[in-house]
Amino acid sequence: MQILEHDGSRLADIAALFTASVHRLAAGHYDAAQRAAWAPQPPDPAHWAARLRPATTLVADEDGVLLGFLAYEARGHIDMLFTSPLAPRRGVATGLYAEAERRLRALGVAELTTEASLVAEPFFARQGFAIVERQCVERGGQRFERALMRKRLADEAAD
Ligand SMILES: CC(C)(COP(=O)(O)OP(=O)(O)OC[C@H]1O[C@@H](n2cnc3c(N)ncnc32)[C@H](O)[C@@H]1OP(=O)(O)O)[C@@H](O)C(=O)NCCC(=O)NCCS
Questions:
Q1: Which CATH number do you get for residue 29?
Q2: pTM for this predicted structure
Q3: pLDDT tens digits, the chain, 159 residues: what are they?
Q4: Crossing angle of the two packed helices 11-25 and 45-52, in degrees rounded to 10
Q5: Which residue range forms the structural domain that includes residue 49?
Q6: Which of 24, 36, 97, 153 could form a disulfide with 85 if both were Cys (CB 3.0 to 4.6 A apart)?
Q7: Whose CA is nearest to atom 34 of ligand 1?
Protein backbone atom coordinates (compact mmCIF):
# COMPACT_ATOMS: atom_id res chain seq x y z
CA MET A 1 0.00 0.00 0.00
CA GLN A 2 1.27 3.44 -0.92
CA ILE A 3 0.15 6.74 0.63
CA LEU A 4 0.13 9.47 -2.01
CA GLU A 5 -1.09 13.05 -2.23
CA HIS A 6 -4.22 13.21 -4.39
CA ASP A 7 -3.46 15.00 -7.66
CA GLY A 8 -7.10 15.72 -8.47
CA SER A 9 -7.52 12.78 -10.83
CA ARG A 10 -9.41 10.38 -8.55
CA LEU A 11 -12.44 12.39 -7.53
CA ALA A 12 -14.92 9.81 -8.80
CA ASP A 13 -13.13 6.99 -6.94
CA ILE A 14 -13.01 9.07 -3.75
CA ALA A 15 -16.72 9.89 -3.95
CA ALA A 16 -17.59 6.23 -4.59
CA LEU A 17 -15.40 5.02 -1.72
CA PHE A 18 -16.89 7.56 0.69
CA THR A 19 -20.41 6.46 -0.24
CA ALA A 20 -19.65 2.75 0.08
CA SER A 21 -17.77 3.30 3.35
CA VAL A 22 -20.66 5.16 4.98
CA HIS A 23 -23.28 2.67 3.82
CA ARG A 24 -21.28 -0.43 4.80
CA LEU A 25 -18.84 0.44 7.61
CA ALA A 26 -21.08 2.92 9.45
CA ALA A 27 -24.18 0.69 9.39
CA GLY A 28 -23.62 -0.47 12.96
CA HIS A 29 -23.86 3.05 14.37
CA TYR A 30 -26.11 5.05 12.00
CA ASP A 31 -29.43 3.84 10.56
CA ALA A 32 -30.42 3.78 6.87
CA ALA A 33 -32.04 7.24 6.93
CA GLN A 34 -28.97 8.75 8.57
CA ARG A 35 -26.63 7.05 6.09
CA ALA A 36 -28.73 8.26 3.14
CA ALA A 37 -28.50 11.84 4.43
CA TRP A 38 -24.75 11.52 5.09
CA ALA A 39 -23.89 9.88 1.76
CA PRO A 40 -26.60 10.47 -0.88
CA GLN A 41 -26.54 8.04 -3.80
CA PRO A 42 -25.27 8.52 -6.42
CA PRO A 43 -22.54 10.92 -5.23
CA ASP A 44 -22.28 14.27 -7.03
CA PRO A 45 -18.73 14.79 -8.46
CA ALA A 46 -19.17 18.61 -8.51
CA HIS A 47 -19.97 18.56 -4.81
CA TRP A 48 -16.82 16.50 -4.17
CA ALA A 49 -14.55 18.84 -6.11
CA ALA A 50 -15.75 21.73 -3.92
CA ARG A 51 -15.59 19.69 -0.73
CA LEU A 52 -11.95 18.70 -1.19
CA ARG A 53 -10.72 22.06 -2.50
CA PRO A 54 -9.76 23.64 0.88
CA ALA A 55 -8.01 20.47 2.07
CA THR A 56 -4.98 18.37 1.28
CA THR A 57 -6.13 14.87 0.41
CA LEU A 58 -4.02 11.75 0.88
CA VAL A 59 -5.00 8.51 -0.82
CA ALA A 60 -4.08 4.92 0.06
CA ASP A 61 -3.40 3.05 -3.16
CA GLU A 62 -2.72 -0.61 -3.79
CA ASP A 63 -1.94 -1.48 -7.40
CA GLY A 64 -4.18 1.30 -8.67
CA VAL A 65 -7.06 0.44 -6.33
CA LEU A 66 -8.16 3.13 -3.88
CA LEU A 67 -8.29 1.68 -0.35
CA GLY A 68 -8.97 4.87 1.59
CA PHE A 69 -8.51 8.62 1.80
CA LEU A 70 -7.89 11.31 4.40
CA ALA A 71 -8.41 15.05 3.98
CA TYR A 72 -6.71 17.53 6.32
CA GLU A 73 -6.32 21.28 6.66
CA ALA A 74 -2.97 22.87 7.50
CA ARG A 75 -4.38 24.35 10.72
CA GLY A 76 -4.40 20.78 12.09
CA HIS A 77 -7.93 19.69 11.32
CA ILE A 78 -8.62 16.17 10.06
CA ASP A 79 -11.67 16.72 7.85
CA MET A 80 -12.35 13.25 6.54
CA LEU A 81 -11.01 9.73 6.93
CA PHE A 82 -12.64 6.84 5.11
CA THR A 83 -11.54 3.29 4.40
CA SER A 84 -12.98 1.07 1.67
CA PRO A 85 -15.43 -1.56 2.94
CA LEU A 86 -13.28 -4.00 0.94
CA ALA A 87 -10.28 -3.34 3.22
CA PRO A 88 -11.37 -2.69 6.83
CA ARG A 89 -9.03 -3.31 9.80
CA ARG A 90 -5.99 -3.70 7.54
CA GLY A 91 -4.22 -0.58 8.73
CA VAL A 92 -5.39 1.65 5.86
CA ALA A 93 -6.59 4.46 8.13
CA THR A 94 -3.51 4.06 10.33
CA GLY A 95 -1.23 4.55 7.32
CA LEU A 96 -3.14 7.59 6.10
CA TYR A 97 -3.25 9.13 9.56
CA ALA A 98 0.47 8.56 10.21
CA GLU A 99 1.38 10.45 7.03
CA ALA A 100 -1.02 13.31 7.84
CA GLU A 101 0.37 13.63 11.38
CA ARG A 102 3.95 13.55 10.06
CA ARG A 103 3.15 16.37 7.62
CA LEU A 104 1.30 18.47 10.19
CA ARG A 105 4.11 18.10 12.74
CA ALA A 106 6.53 19.28 10.03
CA LEU A 107 4.33 22.36 9.58
CA GLY A 108 4.70 23.09 13.31
CA VAL A 109 1.07 22.40 14.18
CA ALA A 110 0.63 22.08 17.97
CA GLU A 111 -2.68 20.24 18.11
CA LEU A 112 -4.89 18.16 15.88
CA THR A 113 -8.68 18.14 15.98
CA THR A 114 -11.40 16.14 14.31
CA GLU A 115 -15.13 15.59 14.57
CA ALA A 116 -15.14 11.81 14.84
CA SER A 117 -18.12 9.67 13.93
CA LEU A 118 -19.12 7.01 16.44
CA VAL A 119 -17.44 4.51 14.11
CA ALA A 120 -14.16 6.39 14.06
CA GLU A 121 -14.00 7.28 17.76
CA PRO A 122 -12.05 4.12 18.79
CA PHE A 123 -9.67 4.65 15.88
CA PHE A 124 -8.83 8.22 16.93
CA ALA A 125 -8.60 7.19 20.60
CA ARG A 126 -6.02 4.62 19.53
CA GLN A 127 -4.07 7.43 17.83
CA GLY A 128 -3.94 9.40 21.09
CA PHE A 129 -6.95 11.70 20.63
CA ALA A 130 -9.17 12.52 23.63
CA ILE A 131 -12.81 13.60 23.54
CA VAL A 132 -13.30 17.34 24.07
CA GLU A 133 -17.10 17.23 23.85
CA ARG A 134 -19.90 15.10 22.49
CA GLN A 135 -21.91 16.82 19.79
CA CYS A 136 -25.21 16.27 18.05
CA VAL A 137 -25.45 17.86 14.60
CA GLU A 138 -28.21 18.00 12.00
CA ARG A 139 -27.48 17.06 8.38
CA GLY A 140 -30.15 16.60 5.71
CA GLY A 141 -32.91 16.43 8.29
CA GLN A 142 -31.15 13.74 10.36
CA ARG A 143 -29.41 14.06 13.70
CA PHE A 144 -25.91 12.66 14.15
CA GLU A 145 -23.97 12.01 17.30
CA ARG A 146 -20.26 12.57 17.00
CA ALA A 147 -17.33 13.60 19.18
CA LEU A 148 -15.02 16.59 18.92
CA MET A 149 -11.60 15.05 19.62
CA ARG A 150 -8.18 16.58 20.09
CA LYS A 151 -4.57 15.44 20.20
CA ARG A 152 -1.95 17.83 21.50
CA LEU A 153 1.28 17.20 19.64
CA ALA A 154 3.32 19.57 21.80
CA ASP A 155 2.40 17.70 25.03
CA GLU A 156 3.39 14.42 23.46
CA ALA A 157 6.77 15.79 22.38
CA ALA A 158 7.41 16.95 25.97
CA ASP A 159 6.66 13.49 27.47
C1 LIG B 1 -13.02 4.43 11.10
C2 LIG B 1 -12.28 3.89 9.89
C3 LIG B 1 -11.68 5.06 9.08
C4 LIG B 1 -11.14 2.95 10.37
O5 LIG B 1 -10.44 2.49 9.21
P6 LIG B 1 -9.54 1.16 9.18
O7 LIG B 1 -8.67 1.27 7.97
O8 LIG B 1 -10.40 -0.03 9.29
O9 LIG B 1 -8.69 1.30 10.51
P10 LIG B 1 -7.30 0.56 10.90
O11 LIG B 1 -7.27 -0.81 10.29
O12 LIG B 1 -6.15 1.45 10.60
O13 LIG B 1 -7.53 0.43 12.49
C14 LIG B 1 -6.53 0.73 13.45
C15 LIG B 1 -7.09 0.53 14.84
O16 LIG B 1 -8.15 1.47 15.09
C17 LIG B 1 -9.17 0.82 15.89
N18 LIG B 1 -10.38 0.63 15.08
C19 LIG B 1 -10.53 0.82 13.75
N20 LIG B 1 -11.79 0.57 13.37
C21 LIG B 1 -12.46 0.20 14.49
C22 LIG B 1 -13.79 -0.21 14.74
N23 LIG B 1 -14.71 -0.27 13.75
N24 LIG B 1 -14.14 -0.56 16.01
C25 LIG B 1 -13.23 -0.51 17.01
N26 LIG B 1 -11.94 -0.13 16.83
C27 LIG B 1 -11.56 0.22 15.59
C28 LIG B 1 -8.59 -0.52 16.29
O29 LIG B 1 -7.80 -0.32 17.47
C30 LIG B 1 -7.68 -0.82 15.09
O31 LIG B 1 -6.66 -1.75 15.39
P32 LIG B 1 -6.95 -3.35 15.27
O33 LIG B 1 -7.62 -3.59 13.95
O34 LIG B 1 -5.58 -3.94 15.37
O35 LIG B 1 -7.85 -3.68 16.43
C36 LIG B 1 -13.24 3.05 8.98
O37 LIG B 1 -13.94 2.10 9.80
C38 LIG B 1 -14.29 3.85 8.24
O39 LIG B 1 -14.02 4.34 7.14
N40 LIG B 1 -15.52 3.94 8.82
C41 LIG B 1 -16.70 4.48 8.15
C42 LIG B 1 -16.64 5.94 7.88
C43 LIG B 1 -16.33 6.82 9.06
O44 LIG B 1 -17.05 6.84 10.05
N45 LIG B 1 -15.24 7.57 8.91
C46 LIG B 1 -14.80 8.52 9.88
C47 LIG B 1 -15.55 9.83 9.76
S48 LIG B 1 -15.03 10.90 11.09
A1: 3.40.630.30
A2: 0.95
A3: 999 999 999 999 999 999 999 999 999 999 999 999 999 999 998 899 999 999 999 999 999 999 999 999 999 999 999 999 999 999 999 999 999 999 999 999 999 999 999 999 999 999 999 999 999 999 999 999 999 999 999 765 544
A4: 100
A5: 2-158
A6: 24
A7: 89
